[in-house]
Amino acid sequence: MSGASPVRSLPALEVRGLRTQFASRGGIVHAVDGVSFAIGRGEILGLVGESGSGKSVTGFSILGLVEPPGRVVEGEILLDGRPIGHLAAGAMRRLRGAQVAMVFQDPLMTLNPVLRIGTQMAAAVRAHDRVSRAAAWDRAGQALATVGIPSPRERLDAYPHQLSGGMRQRVAIATALLHSPKAIIADEPTTALDVSIQGQILAEVRRLADSTGTAFLWITHDLAVVSSLADAICVMYAGRVVERGPADAVIAAPRHPYTVALVGSVPSGHAPGERLPQLAGGLPPPGGDPGCLFRTRCPRATTVCATPPPQGDFGAGHTALCHHPVEHAA
């Protein structure tokens, strides 16, 4: 057979030039400033950056969950090639959960503490599909088994407080998978978990992406997490994507000074007891500064950094938005 059909070659989720702003007493906050990326079927894209970089707002913008004083002011969001950024509220509600879903950092934001797990998952099934209660419970049990929960039928009768934090997060992921969505947005879903439990969930997510074809946008501040999970990485700083590329290339040969600082702060890259390098300063104040927003903290900055930075191309889809990208030996 010749190459893939045009429909199959479309990204599962694509964002083009997304801009989300918030009105405040101090002026307009450019929370997301021209963000673009694409995620193929079965791929995991890690969206990385420190707190306040705009990662979570990007996820909320995709799902139509930004509320006043915030609003999406520009950009396109496409799900399987279909524009969804300007859908009416009712149409967006029907889309959420069925074709694109979200997993939050705290599963208790998703789970009602006074309802059994099965009751909640069955309600999520029946919100989008006209099936019997028994069929909905059956699908819920299958979803729990899919994410590696032992004795799934018994877990359906449990209340959220009867499960561990890691088990609750698996339930949240299973709920997101109920309708085999094209894309799942996961917002810091393993941050509060023990490292060993975190590793188990990451392995399950990798397996799920490979087996179901669901695309994952994995939002995190932890570069160590996405280095072992993601196929590709986008690094965000002050609302902008400053570096993107295949995960191994971004980790092994970071080009933007901010990415270099993030990679340098990963403990596994240092000897036990060695002091980790720290990045001085903080995120810049909100505004429409056209220059490199990292320049006030960057050791490589010069006067030219006050002008819009060019996008350097380092091959294989690896790019960085920088006047003075870091060079690496061939």
UniProtKB/TrEMBL annotation:
Belongs to the ABC transporter superfamily. It is found in: Cell inner membrane. GO terms for molecular function: ATP binding. PROSITE patterns: ABC_TRANSPORTER_1 (PS00211), ABC_TRANSPORTER_2 (PS50893). The keyword Chloroplast does not apply. This is ABC transporter ATP-binding protein. It comes from Teichococcus vastitatis. Its main location: membrane.
